[in-house]
């Protein structure tokens, strides 16, 4: 998790780079994560990026495009699709809900 936390913002960071950093073959990394009860490596990286995006929304980091780049995405449509899959809503919807929540409290 530390390697992912250090590199998730890099759009070129993926399973290949993670396995290189850890000195493991991709198949071995995948197998070890699954055996440990974790997500597959690509899902783990994506989950970390989505959690960071949610945190950035809650911290008023910036607009959706700024958050997208900050968490390692280059494609807005891919980012929105991944975000919606993870949280069941688009980033803009979450931003609106967060703004409304903060105004009430």
SS field, number of helical segments = 7
Order of helices and strands: HHHHHHH
How far apart, in Å, are the first and last alpha carbons? 33 Å
- Low-confidence residue ranges: none
**Overall geometry:** elongated
Report the strand count. 0
Derived structural class: mainly alpha
Quick overview of this protein structure:
By secondary structure, the chain is mainly α.
Account of the 3D structure:
- The structure is a single chain.
- The chain is an all-alpha fold and 105 residues long.
- 71% of the residues lie in helices and 0% in strands.
- The protein is built from 7 helices and no strands.
- It has helices spanning 2-7, 15-22, 26-35, 41-58, 64-70, 76-87, 91-104.
- The protein is elongated, with a radius of gyration of 15 Å.
- It starts with a helix and ends with a helix.
Task: Spell out the blueprint of helices and strands.
Layout: H1 2-7, H2 15-22, H3 26-35, H4 41-58, H5 64-70, H6 76-87, H7 91-104
Helix pairs in contact: 4-7
Task: Give descriptors for this structure.
single chain, 105 residues, 71% helix
């Amino acid at each position: 998790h530390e390697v992912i936390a250090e590199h998730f913002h890099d759009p070129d960071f993926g399973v290949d780079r993670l396995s290189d950093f850890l000195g493991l073959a991709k198949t071995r990394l995948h197998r070890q994560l699954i055996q440990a009860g974790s997500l597959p490596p690509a899902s783990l990286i994506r989950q970390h990026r989505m959690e960071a995006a949610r945190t950035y929304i809650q911290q008023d980091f910036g607009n959706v495009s700024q958050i997208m780049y900050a968490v390692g995405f280059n494609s807005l449509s891919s980012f929105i699709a991944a975000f919606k899959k993870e949280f069941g809503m688009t980033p803009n919807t979450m931003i609106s809900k967060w703004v409304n929540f903060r105004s009430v409290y």
